[in-house]
Amino acid sequence: NWQNEALHLPIIIDERVVGELIFSVSLEQIEQAFISKQMELVSDLVHGVISRHLSLEREVELRKRAEESEKATKEFVAMINHELRTPLNGVLGSADLLSKTQLGEDQRQYLGNLIQSGDLLRVIINDLLDFSKMNAGMMEIIDKVFAWDDLEKAITGVFAAKAAEKRIHFSIDKKLGIPEFLIGDLERITQILVNLIGNAIKFTHLGGVVLRVEWVNGTAFFEVEDTGIGIPLAAQSSLFDPFVQVDRSAKRSFEGSGLGLAICKNLVDLMQGEISFESEERKGTTFKVSIPLKEGQAQGAASGELAVVERSDLAGRSILVVDDIRMNQVIVTQMLKKLDITPDLKANGLEALEAVKNKDYELIFMDCRMPEMDGYEATAHLRQKGFDRPIIALTAGTTIEERQKCIDSGMDDILTKPYTATDIEQIMCKWLEQ
């Protein structure tokens, strides 16, 4: 565009004018066509420079927004995790204590309904939180040494009674050669098997469920086979999709969030394993899972070397409980009283520091989130002052960052809410000295 011997060249990027090049030219000395051609080349060069600059700015902005979104998601999941698990700890903890008292037949039935509903709520909350972590890329695998016997006992403890209630059989068929100690995420492996076996028992009314285990060249192979009602062919292709519930009857008679198998698939993938299934209606289903693991050696707490105290040795121990929520204080106190222990109670880290000055405690249960001074800071102060007795975190946090924060502050172990009287007893037996 020529105006009064001046060449005007607009710079257009993404159909938007972002600038203009203007050159004053003496047309007596230079031909108009020649200068127009040369300036178009200059314009293209400038266009490329500005375009790359704007593109870089967009990338930086998008990356910044993604990082802010990821941070907000992590903070939201952590907050929801804490806010849901804390009241659930009060419900299930109180029900656990009540179950150990003298109750009438009707009262025990009502309590059983409460515990069953509370357990279902716990499973749904855990599934929803894990699904949120999965979508946010926050799902973590924490490899540690664990004993095969611990995994087998956990599975048997959960399902032997449930199978008996339905009058079906449940068994574990393990081949010879499984290492005594393995390296992997015991909690997540247990979660996968509990989900698969739980589904198998839920959908089996005659016959039974068997868990087969085999160890081959550094890989653990698990098979969960049932004689249940099977999975309809039409539902099989979407079985690992989130929020899918296979309603295998005319009426919806099976509870759940529909997230369990999606989470199992994600966990198996994270552990670089494989999961598949075979099913035939009215004949049953078999899920197959393979997870590569390393053989481990007994070491420290993982091998049970610290479990030197029997229940009878716990009576009268000097224990401090630090928690700002009165309900949690009451629940832990009642659980400890069942072991003939009357703990001291404090509501924040500052009170805990003062209490330790005046009394020699053998073990401290420390909540993490508290006003005045949180459990992390209080633990760090205690370690700096030379307190070397066990400090056990009481936390609703389940992310690797939260767990690592507990360890970094000087805590020895973690008890995740909701916990039971048995959890309290076992962790004390693990850490207290004779």
TrEMBL record:
<dbReference type="InterPro" id="IPR036890">
    <property type="entry name" value="HATPase_C_sf"/>
</dbReference>
<feature type="domain" description="Response regulatory">
    <location>
        <begin position="318"/>
        <end position="432"/>
    </location>
</feature>
<keyword id="KW-0597">Phosphoprotein</keyword>
<dbReference type="Pfam" id="PF00072">
    <property type="entry name" value="Response_reg"/>
</dbReference>
<dbReference type="InterPro" id="IPR036097">
    <property type="entry name" value="HisK_dim/P_sf"/>
</dbReference>
<dbReference type="GO" id="GO:0000155">
    <property type="term" value="F:phosphorelay sensor kinase activity"/>
</dbReference>
<dbReference type="InterPro" id="IPR005467">
    <property type="entry name" value="His_kinase_dom"/>
</dbReference>
<dbReference type="InterPro" id="IPR001789">
    <property type="entry name" value="Sig_transdc_resp-reg_receiver"/>
</dbReference>
<keyword id="KW-0378">Hydrolase</keyword>
<protein>
    <recommendedName>
        <fullName>histidine kinase</fullName>
        <ecNumber>2.7.13.3</ecNumber>
    </recommendedName>
</protein>
<dbReference type="GO" id="GO:0016787">
    <property type="term" value="F:hydrolase activity"/>
</dbReference>
<feature type="modified residue" description="4-aspartylphosphate">
    <location>
        <position position="367"/>
    </location>
</feature>
<dbReference type="Pfam" id="PF00512">
    <property type="entry name" value="HisKA"/>
</dbReference>
<keyword id="KW-0808">Transferase</keyword>
<dbReference type="InterPro" id="IPR011006">
    <property type="entry name" value="CheY-like_superfamily"/>
</dbReference>
<dbReference type="InterPro" id="IPR003661">
    <property type="entry name" value="HisK_dim/P_dom"/>
</dbReference>
<dbReference type="InterPro" id="IPR004358">
    <property type="entry name" value="Sig_transdc_His_kin-like_C"/>
</dbReference>
<keyword id="KW-0418">Kinase</keyword>
<dbReference type="InterPro" id="IPR003594">
    <property type="entry name" value="HATPase_dom"/>
</dbReference>
<feature type="domain" description="Histidine kinase">
    <location>
        <begin position="79"/>
        <end position="295"/>
    </location>
</feature>
<dbReference type="Pfam" id="PF02518">
    <property type="entry name" value="HATPase_c"/>
</dbReference>
<keyword id="KW-0902">Two-component regulatory system</keyword>
